Amino acid sequence: MTKYDLFRRRIAPIAFALALGFIAYDTCNKQQRTSATIVIDYGAAERDVHAIEADVWMNNEQVSQFHREAQGDALIGKTQFKASLPDTDGELRIDVELANGEHRKTSRAIHVAEGASVTIQLERDLR
Question: What does the alpha-carbon distance between residue 108 and residue 64 come to, in Å, rounded to a whole number?
Fold first, then answer.
């Protein structure tokens, strides 16, 4: 058996299996994600809201985006979205379009935990 045959039959498959295992390990543990539900509560101002756009920013990077629009003259209704986030602390940037066409922008610092539901109160900002 030559050195080439030894490498081809014994060492190469072992090296390939180790490399494949390392790639799988690195892929699975590269980013731990935190799943959370973001709930937007308009309070009494719900009847004035026509559309909302919300972006989640973490580590100076946009990691999630949400858009919802009311149909015709209907109320926008319950607004919530699920997000899989790379960190637990971030910022929620919100742009609300009111029925009269006016836009209100606000941002809130958020802290999420696995499976948590984070409620953002907007009634005060929309009046």
Answer: 14
